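Ticket opened by: R.M.
Priority: normal
Category: complex prediction / small molecule

The reporter submitted a protein together with glutathione and asked that the result be attached to this ticket for the collaborator who will pick it up next week. Submitted input follows.
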Amino acid sequence: MGKIPTLVDGETVVTEVAAICAYLADKFSEKGLAPELGSVDRAAYYRYLFIAGNTIEPALSLAASGIDHPDPRSAGWGDMPRVLATIEVMTPKTNWALGEQFTAADVVFGGLLDFSMTFNLIDASPKVAAYVARIRQRPCYRETHDAFI
Ligand SMILES: N[C@@H](CCC(=O)N[C@@H](CS)C(=O)NCC(=O)O)C(=O)O
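Result attached by the on-call engineer:
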């Protein structure tokens, strides 16, 4: 598709933001960016990883192009009010998506919200804005984004 990002790790090529983040979180498991395989948190972790690219991103990109899906029942996200309500419920009030531990779920889900706020794709609620602000304050975020903000 000619899209970025693409990770090339030796012979391994990974595309899709969520796949890249999940791959790196597993490869560097000592960093604690993924809950243990088989743990209860792993279910929520997968949900955060997959909903971003599968469901929220296509909904927002369609809306940004000014297109209303003609049949919300056949769109994987229903409609924008439902997408925004789901974002609101999944956004943590404090800390991170899975609780005290920052994980790749925050990189993917929170990163999409950060991107969406930067490009005015969503009108962030106070809870979403506060979560994105917490992400933006992280030293690693600052190191990688300061050139752009
Ligand atoms: N679903 C893909 C989306 C990738 C994507 O949309 N990439 C954009 C940048 S954010 C891109 O490559 N745009 C350049 C182009 O299409 O020429 C993912 O999760 O990685």
